[in-house]
Specification:
The protein has helices at about 15-30, 45-55, 65-90, 100-110, 115-125, 140-150, 165-180, 195-205, and strands spanning about 5-10, 35-40, 90-95, 130-135, 185-190. It has about 210 residues and is α/β, with parallel strands linked by helices. Helix 2 (about 45-55) runs antiparallel to helix 3 and helix 4 (about 100-110) crosses helix 7 (about 165-180). It is globular, with a radius of gyration of 16 Å. The two termini are about 25 Å apart. The structure holds thymidine-5'-diphosphate.
């Protein structure tokens, strides 16, 4: 049995990751692959419990270090209990966010060192990286319009951080993609879902 492939979709808020994840899963199933779709933070009961603590924290909320540790802990459970077993069965795993979200948000956004986030990932998840990471990119003005329609002012604790925070997140993602061009595929997320989907497929086929 050959090991399945591991693909992560990344990007800022409101770029259409979950729609693209669904379309990509359908396309891969139509090609005969077993496909598991999942998300972060979350994906397993333990990681979903940590998700609830992260996105709706008690009291004054987590500091950046505690937040990074919780994301890494959630990911460790997700990798151990869901992602690795699925890959070992030969399934493809598609995840809505993974390690690069921690590097972009807790690193680029909140200022933690990238080397520290990679060290947490080495401890928690034995450094497991996706085979390919699709970075969906969208103009911030278009994102603002999509989010206003989607969330109607009710974004979560992290999504609701200010525009400067999200600009640092976007810049960090872009930097990771240029540093690792073999792992990343950068896809323009503007346009109808089917048009973006065609770009995602083309990027992965390449
Ligand atoms: P979610 O509702 O899944 O956001 P989105 O619809 O934008 O994917 O919430 C996840 C939030 O958690 C999002 O704001 C990004 C943030 N996040 C981190 O800060 N670090 C991480 O490692 C991950 C996986 C997510």
């Amino acid at each position: 049995m050959t090991r399945g492939r591991f693909i992560a979709l990344e990007g800022g808020e409101g770029v259409g990751k979950s729609t693209q994840l669904r379309l990509l899963a359908e396309a891969l199933r139509a090609r005969g692959h077993g496909v598991v779709t999942t998300r972060e933070p979350g994906g397993t009961p333990g990681a979903e419990a940590i998700r609830a603590m992260l996105l709706d924290p008690a009291g004054e909320g987590w500091g950046p270090r505690a937040e990074a540790l919780l994301f890494a802990a959630a990911r460790a459970d997700h990798v151990d209990r869901l992602i690795r077993p699925a890959l070992e069965r030969g399934d493809w795993v598609l995840t809505d966010r993974y390690l690069d979200s921690s590097r972009a948000y807790q690193g680029g956004g909140s200022g933690l060192a990238d080397a520290d986030l990679l060290a947490l990932h080495a401890i928690g998840s034995q450094g497991l990286l996706p085979d390919r990471t699709v970075l969906l990119e969208l103009d911030p003005a278009l994102v603002a319009a999509r989010l206003a329609a989607r969330d109607q002012g009710l974004s979560d604790r992290i999504g609701g951080r200010d525009a400067a925070y999200h600009a640092r997140v976007a810049a960090a993602f872009r930097g990771f993609a240029s540093a690792e061009p073999d792992r990343f595929a950068v896809v323009d997320a503007d346009g109808a879902p089917e048009a973006v989907h065609a770009r995602v497929l083309a990027a992965l086929d390449a």
